[in-house]
Amino acid sequence: MADKVYRASTTAPVNIAVVKYWGKRDAKLNLPTNSSLSVTLSQDDLRTLTTASASASYSGDDTLILNGEVSDISGARTQACLRELRARRAALEAANSDLPKLSTYPLKIVSENNFPTAAGLASSAAGFAALVRAIADLYELPESPSDLSLIARQGSGSACRSLFGGYVAWRMGEQADGLDSRADLVAEASHWPDMRALILVVSAAKKGVSSSSGMQQTVATSGMFKERITTVVPKMMDLMEESIKNKDFEQFAEVTMRDSNSFHATCADTYPPIFYMNDVSKTAIRAVEYINAKAGRTVAAYTFDAGPNCVVYYLEKDAPTVLGTFYQALSSVSGWKEGTASVKSEFQLEDNLASVLKDGVSRVIMTGVGEGPQKTNEFLVAEDGSTVKR
Amino acid sequence: MADKVYRASTTAPVNIAVVKYWGKRDAKLNLPTNSSLSVTLSQDDLRTLTTASASASYSGDDTLILNGEVSDISGARTQACLRELRARRAALEAANSDLPKLSTYPLKIVSENNFPTAAGLASSAAGFAALVRAIADLYELPESPSDLSLIARQGSGSACRSLFGGYVAWRMGEQADGLDSRADLVAEASHWPDMRALILVVSAAKKGVSSSSGMQQTVATSGMFKERITTVVPKMMDLMEESIKNKDFEQFAEVTMRDSNSFHATCADTYPPIFYMNDVSKTAIRAVEYINAKAGRTVAAYTFDAGPNCVVYYLEKDAPTVLGTFYQALSSVSGWKEGTASVKSEFQLEDNLASVLKDGVSRVIMTGVGEGPQKTNEFLVAEDGSTVKR
C-alpha cells in the first residue's frame, strides 16, 4: 500500500486596511512601528485557495505551486512560517506517539487565487494566511486564529489580519520577541454586514517601490514619520474602533481617508520620495469628494495601498449614490456585477473626472466585508498526491 | 503749468524657495509658521517692472494697471502695503514741510512681467516686491530692504524675500506684531554666482488650490504639519544656510529636495488632500534622480512650489550633465537659450522618462541666481501721467 497523503484545504481572504501598516521596528520578525486595522473582504470575490499536503511518499524538499507555477519557498519569510508550524506539530507528535509523523514528511502545497495577479492587489496577505491556516489544519494544531496570526505575520505583516473575517486590528505590541504583535477581532462581519467595497483597478505604467523596502526607506528618511506613528495612528486607531463599534460610517470614512492621506504623505516625505498614487488615483479621490459633496453627507471613503488602485468603501444603502455614480462613468470597463446597471444615481461625475477615470481604470471589483479563512473540501492536491489540473 | 507727475521705476525678481513657506500663524499680517529660504532668480529672465507715480493732477482712487489690464487693488493685502508706505511718507512730510505732499496724492501704478502669466510662475512675489520698492523710491523712504520686507510681506508672504538678491532667508519671528518677521540676506549672488536654475513649465489641466487657502487647510488639518514646522524646518534652515556659506552643492541639493518632499507631503496630508505635483512632475523627479545616479554625485536638485512646474537647481560647471541631458529629451520645446544645443551630455534619459517629459513640459526657462530690485529709467508712466504704450 502506498503511503497515505494527508491533506487540508482552506480559503483565505484579502484585507484592505483602513488604518495602514507602514514601517517595521524589526524587519526579521515583521514587527510593525504602529498598529493597523483592516476590513476583510468577501471571498466570493477575492480569495486564495490553498491545499497543504504531507506524505512519507513525497521526496525532497517542501514545494509550493502557486497559480500553476512552481514557487520559490527558500525565502526567509516562508521558511519562518514552515519552521514554526512544523515545530508545533513536532511538539504534538512528541506528546502523543499515536500521531503520524507529519512533521517529518515533505510538504506539498498548491495555491491559487481567484483574481488576476495583474490586478495589482496585494495577494500576499491572503496567500500567507491561507498557507498558515491550511498547514495548521493539516497538522491539526490547536492554536487559535490570533495565535496563528503570529506565524502568518512573519510571512507577510498584513497577512496576520487575514486570519479573521470582519473588522480586524493588528496590535503592534511592545515585546522584542513579537509575541504580543498579533491580530485581534474588532467586530465580526455580521456586526456591520452592509459595508461594501468598490475597487477601481488602475493600470500602473510600472510597478512602484515594493512595500517591504519602501516602508523601511520611510522609517529611515522621513522627517515626519515619527509623528505619524506616535501621535497620528494611535488617535486613528481609537477613532476607527469607535466608529466600527458604533457603526458610524461618517467617522469610519473620515478616518479611512485621513489615514490613507497620512500614509501616502509619509511616502512622499521619504527620500527619495515614493509615489504610489498617480493622476488617475487622485481623480478617484476627487470623484469620491464630489459624490460626498453632492450627497451632502459622507457616503463614500477612498483608501489606497502601496499602488494606484482605489478602494472605495460605502454602505449598501448608499449603493445608488456611490456605485451608481461610478457605474455611469465606468460602465464600459469589466467587473461590474449583474444588475448594477439598474442601480441609478441622481448625480453624474463632471466630464473631466469621468474621462480620466474611464481612460485609467482597467476594471472594477465589487465586493464587501466578509468572513475569515474557511475549511473546504475543494482540494488542489489529489488523494494520490498529484496536483489537481484545473 | 500742469501739476508735476512724480515717478519712480524699479524691477524686482522672482524667488524660488529651497526651504518652503507653508502655513501662517497670523493670516492678516502674513506671519508664517516657519522660516524659509530662497534663491533670487536673475531678472534677465524673470522680472516685474513697476512704475509708481503720484500727482496732484490725478483724481480719484489709487490705480494699478498690471500687464495692460486694470487690476483690483481694494483687497486687504494691497491696501495694507499702500497704507504702510503712505504713512511713512506722511511722517517724512510732517517732519519736513519742504517736501511735496505725495502722501496726499492718488497713486498710479503700472506693472508688467517679462514672462507669460500662463507659465504658472508665482508672480506675486516679484509683483509685491516691485510695488513696495517702487513706491518707497517714489516716496524717497529711507527704509532698508529688510525694513521694506515687513511691508512687502503683508502683500504676499514670499514677496519679502524678493527685496534682496542672492540667497535670502525669511526669519519667521516671534512677535505678535510681526516686526521681527522679515527678510534677511544670507549671501549675495556674488558669493555663489554659478547657481543655475532650469524651470520645466508643466501644463496643469486645472489650477489647483490657491496657496493662500491651501496652506491654512494644511495648518488646520494635517496631523504631521506640526512636526514639519517645529522639527523638520529648523533643521533644514540650519543645513541650508551652512551649505550656502560653504558653497556645498551636494548638501544644498539634498536639503532642497528633502524640503520640497516634506512640503508636498504636508499638502498630501491635508484633509481633503492637496496635490500640486502631477505625473509629469514626478517624472521630472525621476529624471533628476537618474541624472544624479549616472553622474555618481548630486549635480541637480528638484523643487516644486504650489504647482506642477519643476525647478532644477545645478551649478554652471555641471551644465553639460544637467542641462545637456534635459535638452536632449526636450529640445523640441521653447525657451532654450542660444548655444544650449552645443552643451552635450554623456547621458541620455530613459525613453519612458523622456517621453513623459516631452508630452508634459510646455516650455523651459533657463536662469540662475541674480540680483535684487533695480532702480530703472524705464518708465511705464510717462511724464504727463499717461500710461506708456508698449
Helix/strand layout:
The structure is a homodimer of 390-residue chains.
Chain A lengths: L4 E9 L1 E5 L4 E3 L4 E2 L3 E5 L6 E9 L7 E4 L2 E3 L4 H20 L11 E7 L10 H15 L6 H11 L11 E5 L10 E6 L7 E8 L8 H11 L3 H21 L3 H20 L10 H17 L4 E4 L6 E6 L3 H12 L20 H10 E8 L5 E2 L15
Parallel strand pairs in A: 7-9
Antiparallel strand pairs in A: 1-6, 1-16, 2-5, 3-4, 5-10, 6-9, 7-8, 10-11, 12-14, 12-15, 13-14
Give the helices and strands of chain A as they follow along the chain. EEEEEEEEHEHHEEEHHHHEEHHEE
Oligomeric state of the chains present here:
homodimer
Measured distance between first and last alpha carbons of chain A = 28 Å
Shape of chain A: globular
* Total count of domains of chain A: 2
User: How much beta of chain A, percentage-wise?
Assistant: 15-25%
Strand count of chain A: 16
Q: Biggest interface between protein chains, with counts per chain? A: A-B, 32 and 32 residues
CATH level 3 topology of the largest domain in chain A? Ribosomal Protein S5, domain 2
Name given to the CATH architecture of the largest domain in chain A = 2-Layer Sandwich
- Proportion of residues in helical segments of chain A: 25-40%
By secondary-structure content and strand pairing, the structural class of chain A works out as alpha+beta
Which whole number gives the mean pLDDT of chain A?
A: 95
| Strand arrangement in the largest pleated sheet of chain A | 8-7-9-6-1-16
Largest sheet of chain A: 6 strands, mixed
Radius of gyration of chain A: 21 Å
Please tally the helical runs of chain A, counting DSSP H or I stretches of 4 or more residues. 9
